Amino acid sequence: MKEIMVIAEHRKGELRDVTWEMLSKARVLSESLGSEISVALLGKEMKRLAEILKPKANRVLLVEDQRLEIFNSEIYEKVLTQLITERKPFLTLIGHTAMGMDFAPSLAVHLKMPLATDCIGIDAKEGALSLTRQLYGGKVNATVSFLKQGPYMVTVRLGAFPVFDKESLSGEIISLPSLLTDEGLAKRFLQFVEAAAGEIDITQADILVSVGRGIKEGENIPMVKELADALGGALSCSRPVVDKKWLPKDRQVGTSGKTVKPKVYIAIGISGAFQHIAGMKGAGTVIAINKDPKAPIFSAAHYGIVGDLFKLVPVIKDKIKELRK
C-alpha cells in the first residue's frame, strides 16, 4: 500500500502548527490515493509527542538520539535518508519553514527525488499529484505536476491547509534505532537565539482587525485598535503601515510578514495587494471596508462595505459594545 510520510516539526518540546496542517492534508490525500499515513518524529525523549501524534497517523516512526535533541539539518538529513530509503513512501511532506528548507533540497538530491517547494495546494487525480504554487510573489497561482512517477517530495507553506478533526486512526508507535555517529559532521549547534517576542502573536488570534494605508495617519490607528478590543480580537496591519513605523513588524500580515488564518479577518483601509492577500487567504470569514469599490481586497472578501472607514469604524465599534452589554 502507498504511504504518505509527514516529517513532524517541533521546537522546545512542542509540535509546530505546520505539522498538524500537513497531517490534515495527508488524511485527505490518503482517502483519494488509498494510502496510509506515517509521521516521522526525530528527537530526544519524544514519547509524549509520539502519543499526541498517534490519532492522526497509522504509525509514528520514532527515532530518538541524544544528537537529535537540537535540530541540525545535516543530522536530520542522515536519519531521513535512511528512513525514506527503507520505507519508500509515495509522498513525503515537509514544512516550508526555516527548518524544512534547511534540509529538504539536499535530502531530495541525495534521494534523487523530485521536489516541489512552497506548495499551497496538493490534489490527487487518478493516482497522480497536482500541485499549486505561487509565482511572481503571489500574483499568479500555477498548477504544476511532476514529470516522472513517484516517489515525490513536497514542502508545504505554513497556513496553507486547514486543520480539522476526523475519526482517530489509532496509530502505533514504532521505535527505530538511530545509527548516527559524530563522524564527518560539518555543522555544530552553538546556541538557540529566540526572536524578540512581540506584544501579541497575531498568528494565534481568532479575530484580526487589520489596518492599511487608508488610515492616513498613525494617530488614527487607536480608533481601529478600539474596534479590535471591542471584538476581543487583535490588531494587525499591511506592509505600508509597518514601513511608516505606525505599527511594529510583528503585526504585519503578508508574504513579507506573517501568514494568519483567524476565524474572522476584518481588513480596514487595505487595498488588497497580492502580497497581503497571500498572507490572510486562510481566514474563515473575511470582511473588507474600503472607499474604493474596485479595491482588490473585495475579491478576497466574503462581505464588503464600500464607504469611509472614519465614519464606519466608530459606528461598528459602538454597535458591538451595545450588543455585548
CATH architecture of the largest domain: 3-Layer(aba) Sandwich
Low-confidence stretches: none
CA(first)-CA(last) distance: 58 Å
- Strand order in the sheet with the most strands: 9-8-7-10-6-1-4-5-11
Which sequence of SSEs, written as H and E, runs from N to C?
A: EEEHEHEHEHEEEEEEHEHEHEHEH
Quickly name the level 1 CATH class of the largest domain: Alpha Beta
CATH superfamily of the largest domain: HUPs
Share in β-strands: 25-35%
Instruction: Briefly note the CATH topology name of the largest domain.
Output: Rossmann fold
Domain count: 2
Q: What is the count of DSSP helices, taking H or I runs of 4+ residues?
A: 9
> What does the average pLDDT come to?
91
The count of strands amounts to 16
Which term fits the overall shape? elongated
Helix content: 25-40%
Rg is: 22 Å
The main pleated sheet reads as: 9 strands, mixed
Structural class: alpha/beta
